[in-house]
Fold this sequence. Notes:
Blueprint: E1 3-7, H1 14-28, E2 40-44, H2 48-57, E3 61-63, E4 66-71, H3 84-95, E5 98-105, H4 124-157, H5 160-177, H6 189-197, E6 206-212, H7 224-235, E7 239-243, H8 245-251, H9 256-265, H10 272-283, E8 286-292, E9 296-303, H11 308-315, H12 317-321, E10 323-330, H13 331-337, H14 340-345, E11 350-352, E12 362-368
Parallel strand pairs: 1-4, 1-5, 3-9, 5-6, 6-7
Antiparallel strand pairs: 2-4, 8-9, 10-11, 10-12
Helix pairs in contact: 1-8, 4-5
The structure holds guanosine-5'-diphosphate (GDP).
GO molecular function, one term: metal ion binding
Function: ATPase that binds to both the 70S ribosome and the 50S ribosomal subunit in a nucleotide-independent manner.
Keywords: ATP-binding, Magnesium, Metal-binding, Nucleotide-binding
Amino acid sequence: ALTAGIVGLPNVGKSTLFNAITQAGAEAANYPFATIDPNVGTVEVPDKRLDNITDLIKPKKTIPTTFEFTDIAGIVKGASKGEGLGNKFLANIREVDAIIHVVRAFEDENVMREQNRESDFVDPLADIDTINLELILADLESINKRYARVEKIARTQKDKDAVLELKVLDKIKPTLEAGKSARTVAFEEDELKVVRSLFLLTTKPVLYVANVSEDEVGDPESITYVKQIREFAATENADTVIISARVEEEIAELDDDEKAEFLEAIGLSESGIDKLTQVAYRLLGLGTYFTAGEKEVRAWTFKRGIKAPGAAGIIHSDFEKGFIRAVTMSYDDLVQYGSEKAVKEAGRLREEGKEYIVQDGDILEFRFNV
Ligand code: GDP
């Protein structure tokens, strides 16, 4: 499963958030397939469509799909110099599919700011810089190694791939040297394949989390720190999600009704973790399809662009191996017509084959040979 790694400087609220994630997940359900790793927290992906399908079909059981967050341990500062725990920090980031960068945006004189700086003031931009700089330096090192290999081949042998790679390296290097992430570079279609092959840290999709004070989370747009984080995120085409880790910790153990009540009281319509999960899901290019029978209605996560047999394989490898076709209706059609039978009578039930690209919101029934 694709996972998003939570990073941030010490004392910005990562553990508080991660604990809330772990607790919220543990409360919600028992996931037989969840990763058993103390650094991975599994949460349900909130999806109103699943609730609506359940209302229509009235199955015995409804199972949401899940999403995994990874807690990235290790020391940030000096990581790119390759010292012990710092190395581990970079290695851990290399393994995740997206980065969730938690930034302190709350004032609290009881919570020290870890950074050894001139001021003790909260300074989200400096904090972001500190982490990003380590990632940028690590990427510069990777790039320089690639230069050493590819430069000569490109010049002397005029190898086409090497020439293209060199062009990409030439594009990335000045950006990194200017202290900016490689994700800010605009690449051509043919360059993207090369970019992926470089496995850089600063090309991974990112989202910023502004961790605001529990007193301000109901009206976050008035917080200067939030504005700063948003503006920076925009330079990387990244989203900003506002949460208060402390609030998340407080509501993690509540049941759904109590949670809703608590959130309403502080002026929120959904929990920060729910919001974060949905944005991370989108960031990773994930979609949801459903299976819907009388016994069970269930949501499944897929990577957008996947074809029907691959989607079937998410449920069971036998479904993929023996795939014949997928009986398909869209969520919108089910809601409009009210039942599978009515969808069929309206001529909207489709039989899709091996080449069908599964769409977000599809309700699928796989036919396969055993
Ligand atoms: P980490 O080092 O990034 O994992 O940070 P922690 O989660 O351990 O948080 C550091 C300190 O900040 C703890 O004392 C938290 O209780 C506090 N803290 C975290 N989030 C919030 C918040 O939203 N509001 C306030 N006031 N304090 C917070």
